[in-house]
Amino acid sequence: MQIPDNAPLSPEQRASLNAVLPSLSDAQSVWLGGFLSGYQAARGKGGGSMDPVTVLYGTESGNAESLADQSVKALKGKGLDARARNMADIKPSDLAGMKKLMVIVSTWGDGDPPDAVVDFHKKIMGEEAPRLDGVEFSVCALGDTSYEQFCKTGKDFDRRLEVLGGKRFLGRTDCDVDYEGAFQKWLNECLEVLDKQASSASPAVVAPVTTAAVEYGKKNPFPSELKDRALLTGTGSSKETIHLELSLAGSGMTYQPGDALAVIPSNRAEDVEAILKATGFNGDETVTLPKGEERKLMDALTHDLDITSLTKPILEKYNKVAASDRITTLTNKEHSAELKDYLYGRQVVDVLEDFPVKGLKPDDLAGILRKMPPRLYSIASSIKAHPDEVHLTVAVVRYDAHGKGRVGVCSSYMADRVAIGETMPIYTHNNKNFKLPESGDTPIIMVGPGTGIAPFRAFVEERFEVGAKGKNWLFFGERNYSYDFLYQLEWQDHLKSGALNRLDVAFSRDQKKKIYVQDRILQQADALWAWLEEGAHFYVCGDAANMAGDVHNALLAIAQKQGGKSPEAAEEWIKELKKSKRYQRDVY
Asked: Reduced to 3 states, what is the DSSP secondary structure of residue 253?
């Protein structure tokens, strides 16, 4: 492409550019466009006169932070002054100075703010929150429609910012687990609004800033070969926990200890057949998926759609076709307890059977189901110890409910439906909020019952491979010593080699009185407090419903007894641990 003759350039300038531009690589062209954008803005002809844009994020697994970084790059590509701020690092009073505010926040569990954002959320919702007159904002809420309180934290912030005097420059966007499309639309609309506000009489010509395409990632998962699968639990165990080894050779992907691996499963043939039987379809029908792609119904039910998870939103969508008084009653807010009872243990097929619809169309069925979401698993290996490999520790879910045998879609996919040598689609997911200390000399305390042990296998391997001198202490818990001691021989070898300094275990069913990891923590209170006083980092991975809270309370009790702190001071101490990244949790 040549510079046109009518361009506002001299003949000499056109000739020079026409000689250089064809020789530039794509990367060089992108860099030059960004450079010219920044140069123009620096001369006062871009958006430099507008208030800086703050991209405020609250994150649990790192998604919101990654999207905030992406937003800042796009804003700077428009010549705008932009920066990302973590809610965990600011006070509500700081918001008053953020005149242009983009908020990206996730909802954790069924309506809770991310762990690191709890304190900020509480204060901004309180009576002492500042007035935000003059602040313009827009909110992008991340969530999961499988939970009733979908995107609740984002909705909370959106309402509260308005109540405090802020004005929306763009309405809120709510994103499901498949968030890329909705987020990108929100970001593009924000850029359009803010760019117009920043425009001057002589607007800069800005080249879009792009990054080199990643060959494999969320939009293009890597077909990873399953190299090995081993049963970790012994005969007689009430659980089925497996160890998986997957190849990354040729993927270009890497990871750090604490990161997660996303696996995109397919549905069981039995579950697909049950859906077809309940609807009367044969599977050869053509359906249109949300992005306009046409697929055979059988293929869509097998690979593209979540056909098991049953939630209130799915019931409400289905009832637009079923027009059932019973479903209307169940989804009424006044009957939330009754709805919870109905949903427990049931799947989509149960609704199709309980409330059959004559004349249901294939597109009606596809329309009520959400896209098959990836499942995230804590990575159980160090890539330094296992080059071109990634390992997982997976609890296989199998149970009976309402007269039917049920399985966890992804865990059974990895346990039963992918043979050694076959591939499964995966990508790595960076978790910035669950990382080893920067210094290898820092001691660490790890609490990982059950499959929560996974990231700590990676931690210990990594510290050993890099020659870290810091002490490592592991608390592990399960039901029975004889059947459920995951990676027992490895931990014993690590103790012998010095890679692991202390190991405390709690096997709850080996004695009359159940003993859990929090009990072992309290029993070792003096030593644990001494480690924390030395600067140790404290990590927890595993069950969020009970274990994580019990461990948190044990830590508070130790701060009060061994540290001599009041209950209020212990709470503040915990907050400081979190803020300084010395207390990190990966719970689910």
From this structure: coil
Residue 204 CA neighbour count, 13 Å, CB half: 27
Read off the tokens for 543. 């069950």
Nearest to 545 by CA among 87, 109, 53, 17: 109
Do 419 and 360 lie in one domain? The reply is no
6 pLDDT tier (thresholds 50, 70, 90): low
Question: Same domain, yes or no, for 466 and 581?
Answer: yes
Q: Does residue 36 fall inside a structural domain?
A: no
Q: Please measure the distance between the N-terminal and C-terminal CA atoms of the chain and give it in whole angstroms.
A: 53
Amino acid at 557: A
- Here the CATH number for the domain that contains residue 72 is 3.40.50.360
pLDDT digits (tens, 9 = 90+) for 112-144: 899 888 999 999 999 888 999 999 999 999 998
Q: Are residues 333 and 382 in the same domain?
A: no
Q: Which residue, 348, 368, 388, sits at the end of a domain?
A: 368
53's enclosing H/E stretch is strand 53-58
β-strand partners of 249: none
Q: What residues contact residue 387 under an 8 Å CB cut-off, 6+ apart?
A: none
- What confidence tens digit (pLDDT) does each residue in 463-492 have? 999 999 999 999 999 999 999 999 999 999
Distance, in Å, from the CA atom of 556 to the CA atom of 565, rounded to the nearest integer, reads 9
Domain count, the chain: 4
Q: Specify whether the CB–CB gap between 132 and 165 falls below 8 A.
A: yes
Lookup result for tokens 């859906």 = 275
Is residue 461 located within the same domain as residue 313?
Answer: no
- Chain centroid to CA 271: how far? 27
Q: What CATH number has the domain bearing residue 543?
A: 3.40.50.80
Q: Which residues are CB-neighbours of 546 under 8 A, at least 6 positions away?
A: none
Domain, as residue range, for 51: 44-198
Same domain, yes or no, for 500 and 549?
yes
